[in-house]
Specification:
The chain has two domains: 244 residues, no CATH class; 118 residues, PDZ domain (Pdz3 Domain, Roll). The model has no long low-confidence stretch (mean pLDDT 86). The protein starts with a helix and ends in a 7-residue tail after the last helix. The strands form six sheets. The chain has a four-stranded antiparallel β-sheet with strand order 8-7-9-10. A two-stranded antiparallel ribbon has the order 1-2. A two-stranded antiparallel ribbon has the order 3-4. It contains ten helices and 14 strands. It is a multi-pass membrane protein. It comes from Nocardioides panacisoli. It is found in: Membrane.
Length: 453
């Protein structure tokens, strides 16, 4: 039964991501067609074709490797300086015969030339007015932004549904003077949190002061304590100074004396940066607080997620390198390391098959996992580098700026931005993405991130 539930979770997550990929590609195809562009292919997956069907001028299908998708929009690349775009001739099959005006020398020049030739093999005489590169810049932006925007919208509606019904649940300290929930027996570095105390670990200041679970802290160094945040701030500001604690136990008021120790700790739950602060070694009694909200609350939460995603993108290469080190056994895989669709599927499987989770929480977790993947995919595709959608958007925006500047200065129209000239960079970046993707997939198989309970 557990194996069946695991497989169900994996399949449901995988189908959710495949549906998201299909909708992403529709986000490109629909506006491209509405603007008069020619779309010859719409595929989910890569590699050998499993199934396809022609509807009108577009071939719809599924390929064998379900790790992405694509739509083929004719005329993404302009003819370029080495061809004469105003003197095109067509062969008997209707394909353009590109006349070379300059010799193609050098690896990159030949690479760009070959890419143009492959692109223009699909162009027919009647397609001249339908080529993507000839569209106004704003139409190009709409077409290329359509895909990742769909992913973000998927995430938004899933988040909204969860926030409006299930809500967000957080553990917050009980109101009033803090009640001690746990007392650390020893001082363990934050980076080693979770391990047991050893004989070499010093006793925690809280243990030395005689604190026990259930004690209510009423003052710290003579200052009355009203809530946990006040006590927490006082402890952290105390560095390694003397700490006199007055607390209530069984209706009696007792006093404990100790000295806080300086430890590297994060300043808040949203900031993982470690700072040297005073440490006592207690945690407060908490209760679960449920917060629900509508679309504005969802936008607010996604604003916070955006900051986290930007930070994650900045550290992605380093974290992927950490996964590579874990694969070869140099170190353990970090719990917060990125995962591929395979890793997401494994986490979904573990969630659905976990006996300790109620059905509602399993459904919510699975929805949030799919929404989080969609949000990351959407944000990642807006990175302004080819071959990502953001690279095409950046090219279109630069085209608008360049033409506007030319008009203001009274200079001739500089024409379309030639994205083909960036292909060497695009191929290099694509190779990096491919390597990172392979590393994550292997890591999710060999040293997977498991569900934290």
């Amino acid at each position: 039964m557990t194996a069946l539930l695991y497989a169900l979770g994996f399949v449901l997550f995988f189908l959710g991501i495949l549906a998201s990929i299909g909708l992403h590609e529709l986000g490109h195809m629909i506006p491209a067609k509405r603007f008069g562009g020619k779309v010859t292919q719409y595929f989910i997956g890569f590699g050998p074709t499993v199934w396809s069907k022609h509807v009108g001028e577009t071939e719809y299908g599924v390929k064998a490797i379900p790790l992405g998708g694509y739509v083929k929009i004719v005329g993404m690349l302009p003819p370029g300086d080495q061809y004469d775009p105003d003197d095109l001739e067509y062969d008997e099959q209707g394909s353009p015969v590109l006349k070379v005006r300059k010799s193609n020398t050098g690896l990159f020049t030949q690479l760009i030339s070959d890419a143009r030739a492959a692109e223009w093999e699909l162009v027919r005489p009647e397609d001249t007015g339908r080529l993507f590169y000839r569209m106004p810049w704003w139409k190009k932006v709409v077409v290329m932004a359509g895909g990742p925007s769909v992913n973000i919208l998927i995430a938004f509606f899933i988040f909204w549904g969860v926030f409006a019904t299930y809500g967000t649940k957080t553990e917050e300290p009980v109101a009033g003077a803090p009640i001690v929930a746990t007392v650390s027996e020893c001082v363990i570095p934050y980076t080693e949190d979770g391990r047991a105390c050893t004989k070499d670990d010093p006793a925690s200041p809280a243990a030395e002061a005689g604190l026990k679970p259930g004690d209510r802290i009423v003052s710290f160094n003579g200052t009355p304590i009203e809530d946990w945040e006040q006590l927490r701030a006082a402890i952290r500001a105390n560095d390694d100074g003397t700490a006199v604690l007055v607390y209530e136990r069984d209706g009696k008021e007792l006093t404990g004396r100790t000295s806080t120790t300086v430890e590297a700790r994060p300043t808040s739950g949203t900031d993982a940066t470690l700072h040297q602060v005073g440490f006592l070694g207690i945690s407060p009694k908490t209760h679960v607080v449920t917060t629900t909200g509508g679309p504005f609350y969802t936008v607010e939460q996604m604003g916070t997620m955006t900051k986290q995603v930007v930070q994650a993108l900045g550290t992605l290469p380093v974290k992927v390198w950490g996964v590579a080190e874990a694969i070869v056994g140099v170190k353990d895989r970090a719990a917060d390391s990125p995962v591929s669709i395979v890793g997401g599927g494994r986490i979904a499987g573990e969630t659905v098959s976990h006996r300790g989770f109620p059905l509602t929480e399993k459904v919510v977790f699975l929805l949030m996992l799919i929404a989080s993947f969609n949000f990351f995919i959407g944000m990642f595709n807006f990175v302004p580098l080819l071959p990502l959608d953001g690279g095409h958007i950046a090219s279109a925006l630069w085209e608008a700026v360049r033409r506007a500047l030319a008009r203001v200065r009274g200079r001739p129209d500089p024409g379309y931005v030639d994205a083909a000239k960036l292909l060497p960079i695009a191929y290099g970046f694509a190779a990096v993405l491919l390597v990172m993707g392979v590393v994550l997939i292997i890591g999710d198989i060999v040293v997977p991130v498991h569900l934290t309970t």
